[in-house]
Amino acid sequence: MAETLIKISGVRKEYKVEAGPNVVALNGVDLEIKRNEFICVVGPSGCGKTTLLNIIAGLEPFDSGSVTMHGEEIIGPGPDRGVIFQQYALFPWMTVRRNIEYGLKFQEKMFTDEEKSELVSHYIKMVNLEGFENSYPKALSGGMKQRVAIARGYALNPEVLLMDEPFGALDAQTRAQLQEDLLHTWESEKKTAFFITHDVDEAVLLATRVVIMSARPGQIKEIVDINLPYPRTQATKMDPEFIRLKNYIWDAVYKMYLEIPK
Ligand code: ADP
Ligand code: MG
């Protein structure tokens, strides 16, 4: 069994709401994230996915339970956890190359200019942005901006990448392309990933395990192993086992959605 990287035990998070009852966003959440796995989290809107990611990132305090990385309590953000948001958060005044290079600053290692240049070129190639090194974000499409954000996430060289619906704002074709790029990158670097999506197809395509969350309060309902072989491509979606897993998870999520009072 692979080494446990992050351990979440009995986490409870309640948001104080001024006008109205408090919201119990998470209650009794237990999860172990193993090194090199690709976890996708799905669940109805409002079930606490973002809250859980922010807690792992050290950006959100919680009421009880514990979250550890390598056995040590997570008490705030750190360069061992890289976060990629849906809205790319690039620096508009920096070129693609500079935006990615910025990620290198957070590594402990000091790089020479030559090493920096080589590393940045490696990440640019990885996300298929060759030829756009000197472009500014405003000149790029949404998909390209998200590629820069992903390359910068990798340049941080964190132990785990935390991604909150990173492809949520992209059109279907761009999304499919970025899924393949991300798969390709994960297959070669095996960087531990914690990836939130509301798209069940996307979850099954990428993940080694899919975590299904339920709402009110947010809890882990079920964890499904995805035993489809890598490398995976869009063609994997035709595999009968893919279809079986997708239907199974979709059904579980949809049933919960129907149970939520609207
Ligand atoms: P998800 O990402 O799964 O959609 P969130 O983690 O964003 O869910 O939210 C979980 C629940 O907590 C929701 O009911 C949401 O309305 C509530 N919530 C999130 N952030 C806050 C906040 N800052 N104050 C009050 N309630 C919040
Ligand atoms: Mg969310």
From TrEMBL:
Keywords: ATP-binding, Nucleotide-binding, Transport. It comes from the Bacteria. SMART domains: AAA. GO terms for molecular function: ATP binding; ATP hydrolysis activity. The keyword Transport applies. PROSITE patterns: ABC_TRANSPORTER_1, ABC_TRANSPORTER_2. This is ABC transporter ATP-binding protein. The lineage of its organism: Bacteria, Pseudomonadati, Spirochaetota, Spirochaetia, Spirochaetales.
